[in-house]
Amino acid sequence: MVKAEQARGALGGALLLVGALLLAGCSPVGVAVGAGAKAGSVALEERGFEQGVKDRVTEAAIAKELFNADLETFGDVEVEVYEDRVLLTGVVREPEDRIAVLKIALNQDGVTEVINEILVGDPDTLVDSTNDAWISAQLRTKITFDQQIKAVNYVAEVSGGVIYLLGIAQNEAELDRVVAHAREIESVRRVVRQHVVLKDDPRRERYRTA
C-alpha cells in the first residue's frame, strides 16, 4: 500500500530494490540478502521477484505524481500494483479528482489495467482509517496462519469497511478460504474478490518462466 504522502519514502525504497536487483545480477537469492527481509518476501511471491520490484516501482511512481499534483486532494488515495494491474482505493471529494487519478495510473509505463475503486465524497464520513487498518491487520493474521493459504500472494486494501482483494490464488478453494476469513471479521461490510486471478489464468502467461 502506497499513500500519496508516503511517495518520497516509497520511491526511495523501490529504487533501492531496483539497485539491489542490478547489483545481484538478477539473482533472487542475491537480491534478498542485499536488500533485506522486504526483498526476501517479494522473492517468495508467485509473481516473482523481478515483477514484484517492477510493481513497487510503479506504485511509487503513481504515488509520487499524486503527491506532486496535490497532496490535499489525493492524500486519501491508496495505490496497489500487482503484475502491472493497478488497484486504486480511498476517497476523493470530486468526481473529476477520481478521473485525474485514473489518468495518472494509466499513463505509467507497463500498466495493463487500472481498477478504480476510489469513492467520491467526504473522507471523514465515508471511511474510518483506524477501523480499516484494524480490519486489514486482522485479515493478514488470519490468512497468514492458515496453512492452506499462500498468504504472501494476496494484497488486501480496506476502504470504508470494504475489503478489496488483489493477487494470485492457487485455486478457487484457496480464494474461498481467504474470503471466508474476511467475512468473519467484525465491521466488514463487503468483500470484493473478483480482482484476484487464479494461478493458471491465461492472462498471466507472460509472467511465467520456462
Q: Quick summary of this structure?
A:
The chain has 210 residues and is an alpha/beta fold. The protein has 8 helices and 9 strands. The longest helix is centred in the N-terminal third of the chain and has 26 residues, at 49-74.
Question: What would you note in describing this structure?
Answer:
The two termini are 30 Å apart. This protein is α/β, with parallel strands linked by helices and 210 residues long. It folds into 2 domains: 2-125, no CATH class; 127-204, 2-Layer Sandwich (GMP Synthetase, Chain A, domain 3), CATH 3.30.300. 49% of the residues lie in helices and 20% in strands. It has helices at residues 7-23, 28-35, 37-43, 49-74, 95-106, 123-126, 129-144, 172-184; strands at 2-3, 77-82, 85-92, 113-116, 119-120, 154-159, 162-169, 190-192, 196-198.
End-to-end distance: 30 Å
Largest sheet: 5 strands, mixed
Integer average pLDDT: 83
Question: Helix/strand/pairing class, anyone?
Answer: alpha/beta
| Percent strand | 15-25%
H/E series: EHHHHEEHEEHHEEHEE
User: Stretches where pLDDT falls below 50 for ≥5 residues?
Assistant: 14-40
Task: Give the number of domains.
Answer: 2
Overall body shape: globular
Task: Give the tally of β-strands.
Answer: 9
Number of helical runs?
8
Alpha carbon gyration radius: 17 Å
* Helix percentage range: 40-55%
